[in-house]
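To the structural biology subgroup,

Please find below the input and predicted structure for DUF177 domain-containing protein, which we are adding to the shared reference set this quarter. The sequence is reproduced verbatim from the submission form. If anyone notices a discrepancy with their own records, reply to this email rather than editing the shared folder directly, so we keep one authoritative version.
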Amino acid sequence: MTEAMDIPPEFSRPVRLETLSVAERGYEIEASPEECAALAERFGILAVDRLAAQLRLKMLPGGELVRLKAKFQARVRQACVITLEPVRQDIDDGFDLTYGPEEEVEDTDILVDLDADDPPEPIRGGAIDLGEAVAEHLALALDPFPRAPGAAFQEIGGEEEPAPEEGGKPHPFAALASLQKK
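Predicted structure (tokenized):
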């Protein structure tokens, strides 16, 4: 067992396998303010203001695999990568996952086929954690480079760019000309 597996999830909503059948079952979950704060800390963002999800679980024929279909909505605040101002992001996303027995999943060889379906996620401890699945997909949906409206990079240093010569391309030694004058 790895160290990451020992850390309890911030937003945990486990569903025991014995409660599932071939009939689809619906779940609605929402993170508490404490869970939102813990998720914000985990993701290294300013805040998770809201996280809610609508999920459907069903045992696939054969009884080995479980299908999860989920839609989730979140409101998060991140720091702008330029100004560090808070930037609000509303997320409305969804995902589908298949779960399978842990030993079957971990014994498979790792072959990369971009056209194939993803391998099943492992069912750990006889349960599927709906909250952790939603939290993982929220992390994937976050904007990696949030920008405040109107935020733009500013040039560092006060020197102007050398003017291009008549051909339209800057002279390769134009920057050196300014050094020669000093």
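Summary notes: The chain has a mean pLDDT of 85. Residues 130-141 form the longest helix (12 residues).

Regards,
Lab coordination
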